[in-house]
Specification:
Elements (H helix, E strand, L loop, with lengths): L1 H29 L26 H6 L6 H11 L13 E7 L8 E6 L6 E4 L10 E5 L3 E6 L2 E6 L3 H18 L7 H36 L10 H10 E7 L5 E9 L13 E5 L2 E2 L3 H6 L8 E5 L5 E5 L1
Antiparallel strand pairs: 1-2, 2-3, 4-5, 5-6, 7-8, 8-9, 9-10, 9-11, 11-12
């Protein structure tokens, strides 16, 4: 009995001690002084900024974005004589083809880099090439470039050289790699080589006929004004940036869209779209397709989107 009473008394004493300690802690916290008020400094006035356009004059003078290039190109066009004899330009490019128009700004030239096989594109008068050269004229079989006031030319390979290479390829290949009749793979490889040689010979013959047609057209009297459809062609070239697409045999299969004018008729076509027909004429016959253009009637191009869907866009 006494033991139980003693334990209860001890418990009561411990509870009272805990309550006393808790009260001392709470009273000490309540007795602390309040936090001093925080003073926020007033905002400082912003320094005056120079909003005049004078400080941007240096940017326009440096021509960072080639804003003065069209004027230089137009000046160079009027001063170029495409009939003059010029030295060959030391450029790492091969001239694949040209589309020469009576209006120089509408002419096009296709160039391929000799060491970088994936670098191939269409260039216009005024475009810049490697080593500071700038295109100042495009003829039917050559381009004229200017570097520091010195002009030179880059010509296409002669058709005779192409035909000679096609004729000599078969005997040389036969001497270097005799075909084993018992090996089907070698027979198929020989058949592919013969087919490539025939295509090269046909290509040389087409180039010869095209040159004869161009030389015959030079004898006709050229009209005093721009050719029909020149305005339509200029609208097409200003609406998008494109590069030629060629097949394994070197034939032109169409043009691949690299970029488009957001306000132009081809704005809805995505990058990588390939256009291959104009007014129902395949672009492998580029000269015929250009001659079908008219300034009085709209022209339509048939294109293949990257997804494989085909669409027709008129301009």
């Amino acid at each position: 009995m006494l033991l139980t009473t003693g334990i209860r008394a001890l418990q009561i004493v411990l509870v009272l001690a805990c309550v006393g300690m808790l009260w001392s802690t709470v009273s000490a916290a309540l007795a602390r002084s309040p936090v001093d008020s925080i003073e926020i400094p007033p905002p400082r006035a912003a320094a005056e900024r120079d909003t005049s356009f004078a400080r941007y004059a240096a940017i326009s003078q440096r021509d960072l974005f080639g804003s003065s290039q069209p004027d230089e190109a137009s000046d160079a066009i009027g001063a170029v004589g495409l009939d003059e004899d010029l030295p060959e330009a030391a450029l790492p490019y091969t001239l694949v083809g040209t589309v020469a128009m009576s209006v120089p700004e509408l002419s096009l030239a296709t160039l391929a880099h000799q060491s970088r096989r994936d670098e191939r594109g269409a260039y216009r008068v005024g475009d810049r090439l490697a080593e500071g050269h700038r295109i100042v004229g495009i003829d039917k079989r050559r381009i004229v470039v200017d570097k520091d006031g010195v002009r030179s030319q880059l010509r296409m390979d002669d058709d005779e050289d192409v035909a000679a290479g096609a004729r000599g390829a078969a005997p040389q290949a036969a001497r270097k790699a005799p075909v084993a009749r018992s090996n089907p793979e070698e027979r198929r490889a020989a058949a592919r080589r013969r087919a490539a040689e025939r295509r090269a010979s046909q290509r040389a013959e087409q180039l010869r006929k095209l040159r004869e047609e161009q030389e015959g057209s030079d004898e006709d009297e050229e009209p005093s004004g721009p050719p029909p459809g020149s305005a339509r062609l200029e609208s097409l070239m200003n609406s998008m940036r494109m590069n030629p697409v060629q097949g394994e045999d070197g034939e032109l299969e169409g043009v691949r869209i690299e970029s488009t004018d957001p306000d132009g008729p081809f704005a809805e076509l995505s990058e990588g779209t390939v256009c291959y027909e104009m007014n129902g004429i395949h672009l492998s016959q580029m000269h015929v397709a250009i001659q079908s253009l008219s300034d009085d009637e709209p022209a339509c191009m048939k294109c293949r989107l990257p997804s494989g869907e085909e669409t027709i866009t008129c301009f």
